[in-house]
Amino acid sequence: MHLPVIFLFLFSLAAPGAFAQDSKKEIAKYQKMIADSSPVELFELQGEDLWKKKQGPNNVSLERCDLGLGAGVLRGAYAKLPRHFNDTGRVMDLETRLLHCMTTLQGRKPEEITRSPFGTADKPSEMELLSAYLAGLSRGAKLAPGTAHPKEKASFALGKELFFHRAGAWDFSCASCHGEAGKRIRMQDLPILSKPEFARPVMATWPAYRVSNSEMKTMQWRMNDCYRQMRYPEPRFASDATVALITYLTVNARGEPYRGPGTKR
Amino acid sequence: MNAMKPIRRLTLKAAGAFAAGLMLPLRALAAGWNKDAFGSKTAADALRSLGAATSAESKDIVIDAPQIAENGAVVPIEITSNVPNTKSIAVVIEKNPFPLAASFDFGDGAVPYVKVNVKMGESSFVRVVAEAGGRYYTASKEVKVTIGGCGG
Amino acid sequence: MAEPMKIRATLKGELAEVRVLMVHPMETGQRKDASGSIVPLHFIQEVTVRVNGKVMLEGQISQAVSRNPVFSFRLKGMKAGDKLEIAWLDNRGERSQSVTAIA
User: Fold this and answer.
1) Least C-beta-crowded within 10 Å: which of B47, B68, B85, B137?
2) Is C57 near chain B, with CB under 8 Å?
């Protein structure tokens, strides 16, 4: 046999595998480059202004909001959520807690916020801006959601059950996409979120700016949109179900240093 | 209308005023945004509008861009021109409806380097044209654009 | 808009690495809004970078630059305290500028 033919044969065997590996590498490069030149910081700054803005019938800002570390203590607070709060007797994630502060401190009606908690590219919602700001202040802090309190344990257990529970028009659960190795949707690999190894890099980068629609997206949005994509009814904003799922995912990711609001496709 | 308008046109008057340290633009920005070049529908027309109809391939222009962009809405492109005396850099996305995406003019204090996020309608070559000493140099890199899926 | 532009300028010797984030829709004039109407062309056309009043760099850009543009530039011969000013002008004649000291 001619040498070139053998060479071509061997090359054609190696090529498919090599291409898949190269694709992954190049996509990783894309992800790194967009994170390096991301507009996400602008949202953090806008969130800071909003945090300090007097609003509502009580005409106060959110600066005295207690995110778990004490009123107005912001650095590292996001990384310790979700957690149980004595004043409400509930486990709360960031947005649930913000809703609480908006209604109790500022005197605003919950419907004012929950009517449209998710914004658009032209007009990000308050939740999105505040989430970016507050999450940014946990950069470098290890994810450490509450796990000791009985309600925190219950929230984790509920989240886990919801993760694997199949229902809806397509009989899907979260695990249908995020529970097995080797799954992807078009070019996106789907991480197995029940495993710490895969949950950690994911939870370390939410909330995130999505370049495909120039919008800041939060975890509450992600939960809502996943359910919508599974053809379920959309869960209520800041409901026990959404908090439970966020608890489950964050606990799976605990110990991971939080990287700050991410930039994603 | 001068169709052969280069990116940078330094009139004698402007050069004198610039030398005198006045706050004059690097080129006649007062002439405004280059409608001809930006309105061109082919890469060739855009380059012609910039006066860069002929350019020499150069390894001294470094384009750092991902080979695959998960989303064409934001494709980061990082360009360094090591061609000595580079005065301007143009970024042309060959398959875009209007290929000329940007052009940058560098004064003495600016390094011929820029990083910019561009939109790509489809997989295409990204071409960079640098002007140095009245001549044009070029390099290109292919970027594949995918439509993303569910996305995290 | 609280802050339409944010500039980061860090000095390494005499070289300043400048990163500027801008808030702008950079509409291509091809996008349809929720009601199905075309969102008109609206984008930054000119960007000017000045240090201590002197123009260092000029950019002419198109609607092909991404929404909420982020640019990186490098300036030489800089020193701490130099006044860096970045300004933009869009196709509607709207302007914005931001000033910062190189640190």
Assistant:
1) B85
2) yes
